[in-house]
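Quick question, first post here. What does this chain look like in 3D?
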Amino acid sequence: MRFCAAALFSALCAFGAGRPAQAQEQLTVYCSLLAEWCEIMRVEFEKASGIKLRTITKSTGEALAQIRAEKENVKADVWWGGGAEQHLQAGELGLLEEYKSPSLAKLHTWSRRIAEVSKYRSTGIYAGTLGIVWNTEQLKKRKLPEPKCWADLLKPEYKGEVQMAHAATSGTSYTFLATLVQLMGEEKAFEYLKKLHVSMNQYPRSGAAPMRNVALGEATLAITWMFAAVAEAEAGFPVKSIAPCEGTGYEVGAVSIIKGAKNLEAAKKFVEFALSPKAQATGVRARSYQIPSNLEAPLPPKTPRLEEVKLIAYDFARYGQSAVRSAIIARWEKEIASLPR
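> Answer (accepted):
Ran it through. Tokens below.
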């Protein structure tokens, strides 16, 4: 009997040892935002949900390319951050899961518009206004006037003083090109860009580089997001910005679930958290001062409100199409970026 009992106990132990412990739910997110914000969000989501979160920071263009490359072997569940145009492209390419958030009624109209245009594959999480930024000390040193309009950047005194990121790698600069095309028409926009090229000192590949270079005094002016200028000014850099008088475009950042996500229910929980006032308030802690999409989320201090700026009726549906984007960028590379300086 002792032998039988021992044998039975051994068998039960072996059976138990062969069964894995209940694995903790885990989620992988491609994060196209400041690394600091990605990390804060990871900590806060894990606290709120109990779900283990792995964030991988990638620029918007890098994230889209990665998601395309992994279509047959999906490795991430959610794409958080980055311009809505790129999310719309991903949806157009069949890379995103349809998910109509129950939180839509709590969001700004521009956020809901992205959800509708994307056929509920993406939802807006923040907005930011495109503008002209400058280093006040450098402007004074060079005895240059403060610009007020896009047209001002063509003046001879600004020759070699302006930066914008390379449009082939920067969502910010693509928004600028699309804004000009919508403001002026394509032909006049490219005439403007040829003249603007004279004012450029370089086209950095990083979308964040022009703002940083202006803050450090390595460039005098830049075309970038106005909320970025707020962050640099708060950090003590001599930076100002303006929304150009002709009108300007804006970005809406988005969150999307990747098609084929292995953790679909956890991904939905992340989206709902990302749309909540609590999650959207974390941006300020990372010195990222976009306008949050939730109507109840606190607004970042000093960031220009959309209603205070002369905005164009930016057509996200058209300018988020892969063919339209590719054509505009290809023309810019051929006709503008290739010009001598």
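The longest helix spans residues 2-17.
The domain at 26-127+251-303 is CATH 3.40.190.10 (D-Maltodextrin-Binding Protein; domain 2).
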